[in-house]
Amino acid sequence: MNKLMGFFELQTMSLPSIPWKEYTGREYLQDELLWTVRSAVFHGNDLNLPRLVGVNSKEAKEFANQLLEKLAGEGIVIFYPYFIANKSGTLEVKQDKVIIEAVKADLWNMVTLSDRDVTIQYDDDNEIINGDGLFLSGDEKKCLLNNVKEIKKTFRDDLLEGKSILLEWSFAQNCDENKEPVGDEYLVFYEARTV
In angstroms, rounded to a whole number, what is the distance separating the alpha carbons of residues 108 and 98? Predict the structure, then answer.
């Protein structure tokens, strides 16, 4: 499963996920919000694709229009309201094991800087912690683990083939046009793929 399939899969699951929409060039983006624009390809390498995060509606539309031209039928452009990530990470679900990796703030701290505050592995009712054992609260761990049953149900065939499912997540908050957090924190998944 590639990134594009993961976007569609998340949309159909009962997991908390980003409210993304496909951008075709005719969409209205509210000026009082900041936006994230991402791309996904139908075939081929879908790592490190162009994206623009946390920009005003004018910048988002300009970038999205450029992406539409660049992709030219080879993929899609998606957009969604920008959110502030307080903690982020990956949730890897295997048939007999679950691994949570977490980092402060945005997931790109883990991806680009190789930062990692904690890795937690669950197997046979054991919890093995590597790193800051207090980084994720008990409620945050429970919130993530409560989604494993749905993930295993949805990806049952992949798991039986020995694959694992890798999801990206954040404990996030909405924000205003100045990138100041507003409202309550919530869990959001924004990418799923088989590995």
Answer: 21
Q: Is 122 in a helix, a strand, or coil?
A: strand
Q: How far is CA 79 from CA 12, 49, 69, 88, 128, in A?
A: 17, 14, 16, 20, 37
Distance CA 112, CA 128 (A): 25
Angle at 185 between CA 183 and CA 191, to 5 degrees: 120
Domain limits, the chain: 16-82, 84-194
H or E, element range at 59: helix 57-71
Q: State the Cα angle at 143 between 139 and 144, rounded to 5°.
A: 125
pLDDT at 12 exceeding the cut of 70: yes
Rounded Cα gap, residues 84 and 182, in angstroms: 9
Segment 110-127, tens digit of pLDDT: 888 889 999 999 998 899
**CA gap 37, 156 in Å, rounded:** 31
* CB 119, CB 101: distance < 8 Å: yes
- Residue 65, CA atoms < 13 Å, CB-side half-sphere: 11
Alpha-carbon distance of 56 to 130, in angstroms, equals: 39
Architecture of domain 84-194: 2-Layer Sandwich (3.30)
Prediction pTM value: 0.83
